[in-house]
Amino acid sequence: MRVLVVLTAAALVFVLFPPDGASERTCEANARKLVHRFYPLRHCQRSNRTVIGLLNAKTVRECADFARDKQALAFNYAPEGRNNTNWYDVVSEREHNRTNKTPWKPASPAVSNTFGIDDFYNCHVLDCPEYRNLSTIVNDTRFDYYTLYARNLPSSNYTCIPSIGMFLFENTKLNFSNAYNACVSAGGSLAHIASDARTFHLSKYLSELPSANNSASNNTTTMPLDTQYYVGLNETEKNRFFTSANERLDCFTFRAWAPGHPE
Ligand SMILES: *[C@@H]1O[C@H](CO)[C@@H](O)[C@H](O)[C@H]1NC(C)=O
Ligand SMILES: *[C@@H]1O[C@H](CO)[C@@H](O)[C@H](O)[C@H]1NC(C)=O
Ligand SMILES: *[C@@H]1O[C@H](CO)[C@@H](O)[C@H](O)[C@H]1NC(C)=O
Ligand SMILES: *[C@@H]1O[C@H](CO)[C@@H](O)[C@H](O)[C@H]1NC(C)=O
Ligand SMILES: *[C@@H]1O[C@H](CO)[C@@H](O)[C@H](O)[C@H]1NC(C)=O
Ligand SMILES: *[C@@H]1O[C@H](CO)[C@@H](O)[C@H](O)[C@H]1NC(C)=O
Ligand SMILES: *[C@@H]1O[C@H](CO)[C@@H](O)[C@H](O)[C@H]1NC(C)=O
Ligand SMILES: *[C@@H]1O[C@H](CO)[C@@H](O)[C@H](O)[C@H]1NC(C)=O
Ligand SMILES: *[C@@H]1O[C@H](CO)[C@@H](O)[C@H](O)[C@H]1NC(C)=O
Ligand SMILES: *[C@@H]1O[C@H](CO)[C@@H](O)[C@H](O)[C@H]1NC(C)=O
Ligand SMILES: *[C@@H]1O[C@H](CO)[C@@H](O)[C@H](O)[C@H]1NC(C)=O
User: Fold this and answer.
1) 81 shares a domain with 146
2) Which residues form the signal peptide (predicted)?
3) How far away, in angstroms, is 175 Cα from ligand 6 center?
4) Pick the residue with more confidence: 94 or 30?
5) Whose CA is nearest to atom 14 of ligand 8?
6) Which residue among 30, 103, 124, 252 is least crowded, i.e. fewest CB within 10 A of its CB?
7) Would you say 75 and 165 are in contact if contact means Cβ atoms under 8 Å apart?
8) 105 within a domain of the structure (yes/no)
9) What is the number of alpha carbons within 13 Å of residue 189 lying toward its C-beta?
10) Cβ(158) to ligand 5 under 6 A?
11) Which ligand is nearest to the CA of 218?
12) Are 181 and 243 contained in the same domain?
């Protein structure tokens, strides 16, 4: 049951899995099951986080599909039919006209200009979501803000890895079951690592942790050998691993495990 994967980037090599009798359909079912859901979080506001894709979408569903396609973690959507002027701009413009003689110049550029494009896009997909302090939210009556992380807004000790997810390193010695449960009760799961991008970025994240102190190791290449991190793989059946989203690991093309791993 216990799975430890040591993320030694240098030692990651290809390991072929023995063929098994499972049909292709099972993996397809696996893939279909996992549709990340975006939740509406703010009405008449948008997030000013980094935009990784722009689209004119007819429906919020179309915008959400585009967001999934672009590996976005959140998006801003302006529904059709909503007045296409931002009332907050109008209000500050009035305020400005009332108190100043100089002609009005928008203080913050309009959304469209923010990207150096004159066209208006009603679907902005974002590489990272808002944190609990909503520090990059902007009042904009045209838009609503949707996020994958709405039920449990990430607190400031989380790290966003753009397009991958939100991660928190828990610097406590626990066994696998307790680590698994600690993540679940924090509203998450042990890190899903079954892709090159995930492995690469998580290794980087771990190697940059200031608290990864190991008395003997003043050498980043040896550090992971005596530091073990739990990741989201369960050996639910003998030699068959499942990810933290309960997907079969052998359905992933990712095979860059150290020799003999995962074990
Ligand atoms: C949005 O972000 C850009 C750059 O990231 C910044 O220049 C701008 O001031 C921000 N706008 C608001 C309204 O926060
Ligand atoms: C949006 O609001 C402005 C300002 O009141 C108004 O002039 C305009 O007609 C409205 N547009 C629509 C489509 O309702
Ligand atoms: C503010 O003043 C400008 C001209 O200086 C005018 O064009 C604009 O309509 C005014 N805006 C509002 C909201 O009154
Ligand atoms: C948005 O507008 C409300 C008032 O409607 C104001 O209290 C709040 O500070 C504004 N937030 C931002 C991020 O500008
Ligand atoms: C909000 O949280 C982010 C993420 O940790 C942090 O970088 C930022 O400084 C915080 N902003 C405020 C205003 O507290
Ligand atoms: C992260 O922050 C939350 C609340 O801000 C706190 O309850 C939790 O203990 C922190 N976790 C770590 C690992 O620092
Ligand atoms: C994990 O540790 C807890 C107590 O710290 C213990 O009750 C539990 O049996 C352990 N589980 C395993 C699988 O070792
Ligand atoms: C994965 O392991 C954890 C901890 O041992 C256990 O609680 C959980 O039920 C397991 N999940 C599956 C799908 O086997
Ligand atoms: C890490 O180790 C250094 C010296 O090796 C020490 O100064 C520092 O306080 C340690 N940090 C933590 C978080 O234990
Ligand atoms: C770590 O290594 C650097 C040089 O690579 C050295 O200057 C430093 O003193 C070492 N620190 C410890 C705690 O051994
Ligand atoms: C780290 O350790 C490895 C093997 O123990 C050694 O080959 C390498 O030169 C060391 N690197 C540094 C920067 O000390």
Assistant:
1) yes
2) 1-23
3) 19
4) 94
5) 236
6) 103
7) no
8) no
9) 12
10) no
11) 10
12) yes
